[in-house]
Structures are given as C-alpha cells and as structure tokens.
Write the structure tokens for this entry.
Amino acid sequence: MILRFHRRALALARAARGHHGTARLAQDHRASTKLFADAALEENNPENQVSGSNSPQELQQHKNWTGDESVGDAVLRMLVDKYKPLRTGTIRTAEEKIRQGLVLPPIHDIPHPSTSNAPASPTRASEEHQPWMTTFNPPSHASTPLVRTGRISTSPSAAKPNAAPEKSSYSALKQEKRKKEIGRLGTAKESSLDYRLGKGEARPRLNPVSVQGWANLVEDRIERARAAGQFNNIKGKGQPLPRDMAERNPFIPREELLMNRIIRRNGAAPPFVEFQGELESSVSAFRSMLREAWTRRAVRTLSLDLSPSQLARLSPAEVARTRDKRWESQEQAYHEASLNEVNALIRKYNAAAPYAVRRPYMILSVELEKCFTSATEDIVARLAEGSRQVNLTSNAEVSKPRPMKPWRLRDIIDRLFSRLYPGYPQVADGERSNK
C-alpha cells in the first residue's frame, strides 16, 4: 500500500514537473507539492527499493494469524510478565528520544490572508520551553479580561464575629472528649497491671512512638510476667505440640482448617451432627426394644412346644428359622408407629446433612429380619439357662429326704404281731396316723 502511494506520488510529481517546469515547482509551497517531492526522493533511494524476489521470502518468514496464540509466544509472554527484564542503564526517556530525533523543517514565509496589519513573524519553538510555561497576554484592544478571578481575603477581620459554630465542630469536640475518657480508662488499667506485675514499685509511664518501641515494651512485659511465675502453670508446658492430620491435607484450605479447630475446641458442631446423635440413640432404642420383645416371645413359645430333651438338642440355626406370624400381626401397629417416629428423625437429619452422609429410611420387614438374626444368641442362652434351672429344681426334689413320723407303742406292738402272726391285720402309716 505504501509503495503504491509512493509510485502514484512520483508519477504526479513527474507530470507536474513536465507541465509547469522546474522553476515553477521550486516556487510552489503547497503541502501536496512537498509530499510529492518526499515521495520522489524516497522512491529514488536504493535502500528503500524492495526487489520482487526477496518480497515473498520476507512474507514467508511470518505465519498468518489464525486467531490462536502459539505456545512459544504464550510462554515468552508469561515469563516476561513474571520476571521483568532488568534495566541496563541505557534507557532514555520519551522526551530525550523526541529531542534527538526531532528535525525541524525550514520555515518559509507563506502569504496568508489576515485582517490585522501586524507583520507575520514566525517563531521557532525553544527546546527549553514547555507547554505549561505559556502565559496568556490579552490583546491591546481588549478592555476587560476574559477570565474572572475571585478575591480571597486572608485577614482575620473578614470573618463574622458572631458566626455560630458548625455541627462538625460539635462532633469534633464530642470525639475529643470521648478519646480523653477512653485514654484515662486505659491508663488506669495499665497502671493497675503495672502495679501487680511490679509488686508495688513505682514505674514511669511508657508511651512508645515507634514499632521498635512497642516491641521493646512487649518484651519487657513478657520478661516481667515470666519472672513473676505467671507462665509456670501453662497447659502443655514441656510437651510436644499436638499435630492434626488435617494440617497435612492439601485439599483443605487453611482458613477452613482454623475455623473447624475453633468450633471443635468450643464444643460446637454443625446442625446435622447434633441430629445424628439424636438419630443414633432413637435407632438403637427401637432395635433393642424389638429384639427384647422377640426374645421373650421365642423363649416362651419354644419352652411350651418342645420338651426339655428337644430344647437341649436345639441348634442356633433352628432358632434363627423360628417365626411367629401371630406375634407379628399383633405387634404390627405398634412397630409401625415406632418406626414412623424414627423415619421422621431421619427426614429431619437428611434435610440438614450433606448429600454424602444422608441415610435411607428404615423398613419394618428389613428390621424384623435383622432382629430374628441378631436375637438368636440371646434366645439360645435363655433356653439353656431355663433348662439348667429346671434340672436343678428336679434334682433337689429327688434328693430331699422324707420326714419320719414318730412311732407309738401301739404301732410297735402291731408291727411285732404282724411279723409273728402273718394273719394279723397290718395297719398302714396313713391309717395309723389317723387313729
């Protein structure tokens, strides 16, 4: 595009030179003539000429823009943004560059129409002159200034003597009074602490004004407290610091770790954790009630239906297969009511708990099967204990001696005559006691 413009300008310059001549071109001071002359000089310069053979090679050195940044350019840009290049000391300011490359063209006296009779005297810009140094000089024919300025009086007599104080002054006075009161309270508190730490010694009031002064004051207070023995009863003194495994977890943010630690130390917990404790107690109570009721029912049923010898040969697998449909139908309403209460707590817990720790609802048939399986050991133990008590009772009754009735003289004579005379009637013990 630039070459086309230069060629066109050169052609126009040559045409103008052929029609009007060199003398007329030298006297022409139009801007277009100046542009044509510059284009002709640039066209004749061999350094600016681009050969047709080299132009495609130069164009092939750079790839066409595809809309995406290459990996090399992206990496270079990130490195430059991260690590700024060091300055070599040869950096020049923009003003120095402008001054060095500034070439002022010669100024010609160009006639131009003007309404004033003053001679046109072009002035050259000074290198030391800056735009903000320019001052405004009004023309001689201007009677009044175009810019009006206000008059500011600095004398104290200009203020009104009876001016009422503003609201801001009242608020400033209140703030100052409040600061003084707070300062007195703080001074009293610090004085009491100094008295207790110093054991009644009078010490001057310290008021540091720098960071180093405050650091020295803090160190002094710590040393005095240590000398007084206030650090002797610190919890965990001489023991290693407790480590939390969550501190090594890179997926837990630091602020979340500190927040959870504070909550755990204060005994607080999220709402779903509190609901979880209540839910666990309700579920365990329901299952314990169900297991105890079935254990009593199974022990009573098996004791009535089986003999002691059959109970002794009863295995846990046979006990686990024992069912009582009559008991299930009788207790179904009570079991469903209790299970509905537990499911209500589960619903409340799931509303506050995260998705990963939510719990499913409980089903009566599933809970009964768990009860039949878990109560097997209790049923076998109670049956064995019952059979052992029965055996002890029967053995005690067999081994118990029968009481002997006292013998009377008549009974002895009757027994003697019955042995001597077989035909003599013998009296039984019961009849003898009745006589």
About this structure: The longest helix spans residues 271-305. Confidence is low (pLDDT under 50) at residues 428-435. The two ends are 158 Å apart (CA to CA). Residues 271-395 form one domain.
